[in-house]
Structure formats: structure tokens, C-alpha cells
Specification:
alpha+beta, Thrombin, subunit H
């Protein structure tokens, strides 16, 4: 046997010995824990039963708290030590990507139909209904309608807070914020459903609201 082979054999023996010592040490630690009355707990990741998917990749949906989004992918994620299938949803307006478990897909809805969008246009054309209550209470109601995810309620908020112009003086800061929030969300859905550019959708909505009519004349 050559010196080179003998040296290699010695190194292999040392590695094997080190591994055996490590394994023995681990066994002794486990025995010690058992003697102390401690159980060795091996955590297993539970799998959550998944509902049947209602939406597909690249499909546009509406998430009430954020508005229109696009499903980028369907991935597995571990949430509270439970493995579950999730939608990865991109919200263009907020430049935000959300992880929504498929078991919570009831919080999502499909984008509106053409008929529903046409009904929204009709709502925008009607006169605003202003309740004679405190602004704080009305603001809360408007916020609830915006986050309801219901397209008709969104259209009602836009219509009720519309001032027929872009003049900042006509609205308080909080009114303007709520109006812009509702307007942007409704506009996003119009763009997706009607497949129209943002500028054309804005013209369509502003015409229905009667905004800047005096300028157009």
C-alpha cells in the first residue's frame, strides 16, 4: 500500500470517528432530556384543506380594501405553521403585492360586467344625495362604502362627493381625499372592464359627473 493511500485511509477514519462522536453526543443529550421529563417535540407543518380555486392566473379581481388587482401566481405559503395555497395579487394603483389565502377568496370578487359599468355611469349622472348629518358620521359611511367592494356603492360615493369642478376650494381636505380614493378605484375598474386608456375613462366619468362642463363649452 502506497503512502498516499495510507494517508487517505487515516483521514477517512478520523472523519468517521468524528461523525460517530457527534451522533453519540446527540443521543446522550436526548436521553438526558428524557430523564428530566422533557419530551422531544418534532414540529410538523400542517397542511390546510384548500378550497377549489375560483380565479386564475392573470385574471383581474377586486379586493375591497385596495381595489382592482391582477393575480400574478398561485403559490404555497406557511402561515402560523400551516401550509396553505395563496394568490399573489398585484394592486397597480398602490404598487403593492398581496398574499391572499385561497380559503379567504370569498373576500375577493370578479370585476364588473359591461352592464354593471353602464349602470355605474347612470348613477354618476344622478343628483348627489347629501345627508344633513355631521361630516364625521358621513365620512365614516363613505369610507365603509368605498371598502365594501361593491361597485354601485363606490359610484354613489363618487357622485355624492362630486363638486362639478376641479377647484380645490370647493371641497375640504377630507372630502377631497375620500372623493379621489373612490374616483380612482372606480376608474381602475372602468379601465379593466371597458379596456380603455386612463385618459378616455376619465373623460367618460367626468362627462357623466358634469365636471368642467363650463370649460368644455
Amino acid at each position: 500500500m502506497t503512502k498516499k493511500k495510507m494517508k487517505k485511509k487515516k483521514i477517512e477514519k478520523k472523519i468517521k470517528k468524528a461523525k460517530n462522536l457527534k451522533a453519540k453526543k446527540k443521543r446522550l443529550e436526548i436521553q438526558k432530556n428524557n430523564l428530566n421529563g422533557e419530551k422531544v417535540i418534532i414540529k410538523k407543518i400542517k397542511k390546510q384543506p384548500t378550497e377549489k380555486r375560483q380565479y386564475d392566473i392573470n385574471q383581474y379581481i377586486v379586493y375591497p380594501k385596495h381595489g382592482v388587482g391582477k393575480i400574478l401566481s398561485i403559490e404555497k405559503a406557511v402561515i402560523s405553521e400551516i401550509e396553505t395555497n395563496c394568490y399573489k395579487v398585484f394592486i397597480p394603483k398602490d404598487k403593492l403585492t398581496l398574499t391572499i389565502p385561497i380559503n379567504q377568496q370569498s373576500n375577493l370578487r370578479s370585476t364588473s360586467s359591461i352592464n354593471q359599468i353602464n349602470k355605474c355611469v347612470s348613477i354618476l349622472k344622478t343628483k348627489p344625495k347629501i345627508k344633513r348629518t355631521m361630516w364625521s358620521r358621513r365620512a365614516q359611511e363613505y369610507e365603509q362604502k368605498i371598502n365594501s367592494g361593491k361597485v354601485y356603492e363606490l359610484a354613489e360615493v363618487v357622485k355624492d362627493l362630486n363638486k362639478n369642478s376641479n377647484t380645490i376650494v370647493d371641497q375640504s381636505y377630507s372630502e377631497r381625499q375620500l372623493f379621489e380614493k373612490a374616483y380612482d378605484r372606480l376608474q381602475s375598474e372602468f379601465e379593466v372592464v371597458l379596456q380603455m386608456p386612463q385618459a378616455d375613462v376619465k373623460k367618460k366619468m367626468d362627462k357623466a359627473l358634469g365636471r368642467n362642463q363650463n370649460l368644455e363649452e
